[in-house]
Fold this protein.
Amino acid sequence: MSEYLASHNRVPKGPITLMSRVYRFVLPEVRATLAQWREKAECIPDPELRKQAIDSITHKEFHCQGGAVYAAANISMRHVLIPLIVALQTISDYLDNLCDRSTSLDPEDFRLLHQSMLDAVNPNATLQNYYALRTEQDDGGYLHDLVEECRRCIGQLPSYPLVASSVTSFVKLYTDLQVYKHIHRDLREDSLVNWWKQHRDNYPELHWNEFAAATGSTLGMFMLFLAAADTNLQASEVERITQAYFPSVNGLHILLDYLIDQQEDQVGGDLNFCTYYDNMNTTTLRIAYMVEQARGQIMHLEHPLFHRMIIEGLLALYLSDPKVRTQPEVKAVSRKLMVKSPLTRLFFFVNSLVIRFTNQKSTS
């Protein structure tokens, strides 16, 4: 490998290098990939499935953009990592829409829908009719195409066998969460608490809502995809990644997401894990605790500076969201979390504003 290529593929050690790659490679390639999936979504025969597929791409583009940042750590493999991350995140967002605005409250329906995510990360699984337990059926092959794209990309990751078990574990937890959080409102909390009781001995430091939040993130999956792109990956590093991302980094990610969505979820009648704290002061303390835990855990990984930028980027991405300004209590929490903000977080804060403005401009 030439000296130039070796330098080009090196994991970014600072925010300027990282964001230059994001602007040059990640954002345009995510947009191009999503545009292709949008074309397929627009051809879905069933009107409800078509609406939810298009809405998930239109309104949740930033999920794919944020996830695809991991491809910036291995630019030479971005032709595999970006399509893989976009496809799996698009499945997640599409199914979330189907469950949130569901014509069904059947837990078996939700579990069968999410079997598609498990099949997407298992190249040997047999494809199924994931809509078999609901009225809407004909998606023109959209969900199968997304699953097959994930499997095609996974087949190009040289060390995927080393991460397959951890990825599958993350997807199984994610699937359980989606089932329990979308069933009848009167059953949700008890089901989630009972589920947590099965795992709490392994995570005694967490509240039930924090464990549930940690299972709802796809970041650990994406980090394992990045790790699997390395031909020299060791099993010991896979274990460290798994422990660092779950529950700390994953939990921080989803708690921030729920923090800014409280007003929106109240209107929609959707479950929100931040509302289970006694007050906003407790909310601030617990999210700050997750920040510190995440910062500490990533120090055990290779390239800790890259993972530290991921954490600061998460804080910047969510705390720069326009929804923060319309919720005075959330705005107060945001300010407290930003009080001792390092310069890198301020840097990402500004860039998050720029990316959001660009996204709004492109969809208007």
Notes: The chain is about 70% helix and 0% strand.
